[in-house]
């Protein structure tokens, strides 16, 4: 970018469109297992894979599952089945087509969603909390259809 364009972008950040997706990073002991959960439960395709991380991405969201450093991983206990870690300050939100189907796929890939009785409505979406195979909390939202 030439200097004039750079100065214009600083003066008016809205003039510089952002083309990247929103995203988050989740640290995991078992990168492949956690990535498979998000690939199958949330429908996020794998777009890049290396030994220490896997990138899953849709047009609007990028998830990086990154290996916990070995020294730290040795101090982390992951139960099977996993126990939800509720004492966290952040909860990723993923939009899906069908929460009931997501609930089934989550269990098949080591995670869990709350039962249907614990779903609620928020801003035109059916919402359900759950967790991945290592207990990381995640929320799934399904857009409600508007009756004709």
Which stretches are low in confidence, meaning pLDDT under 50 for 5 or more residues running? none
Coarse morphology: globular
Radius of gyration: 18 Å
Q: Structural class, from helix and strand content?
A: alpha+beta
Helix segment tally: 4
Count of DSSP strands: 9
Strand content: 25-35%
Secondary structure layout:
Layout: H1 3-11, E1 22-28, H2 31-41, E2 46-50, E3 53-57, E4 61-67, H3 70-73, E5 93-96, H4 99-108, E6 112-113, E7 120-122, E8 125-131, E9 137-143
Parallel strand pairs: 1-4, 5-9
Antiparallel strand pairs: 2-3, 3-4, 6-8, 7-8, 8-9
Give a brief description.
The protein is an alpha+beta fold and 148 residues long.
Explain what you see.
By secondary structure, the chain is an alpha+beta fold. Helix content is 23%, strand content 32%. It is built from four helices and nine strands. Strands 5, 6, 7, 8 and 9 form a five-stranded mixed beta sheet that branches. A four-stranded mixed beta sheet has the order 1-4-3-2, with helices on one face. Strand 8 and strand 9 form a beta hairpin. Helix 2 packs antiparallel against helix 4.
Give descriptors for this structure.
alpha+beta, 5-stranded mixed β-sheet, 4-stranded mixed β-sheet
């Amino acid at each position: 970018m030439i200097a004039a364009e750079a100065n214009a972008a600083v003066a008016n950040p809205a003039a510089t469109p952002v083309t990247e997706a929103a995203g988050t990073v989740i640290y995991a002991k078992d990168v492949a297992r956690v990535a498979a959960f998000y690939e199958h439960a949330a429908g996020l395709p794998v777009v890049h894979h290396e030994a220490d991380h896997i990138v899953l991405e849709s047009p609007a969201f990028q998830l990086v599952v990154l290996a916990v450093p070995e020294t730290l991983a040795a101090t982390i206990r992951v139960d099977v089945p996993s126990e939800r870690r509720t004492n966290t300050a952040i909860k990723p939100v993923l939009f899906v087509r069908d929460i009931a189907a997501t609930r089934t796929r989550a269990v098949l890939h080591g995670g869990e969603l709350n039962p249907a009785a614990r779903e609620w409505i928020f801003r035109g979406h059916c919402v359900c909390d759950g967790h991945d195979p290592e207990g990381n909390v995640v929320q799934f939202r399904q857009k409600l259809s508007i009756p004709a």
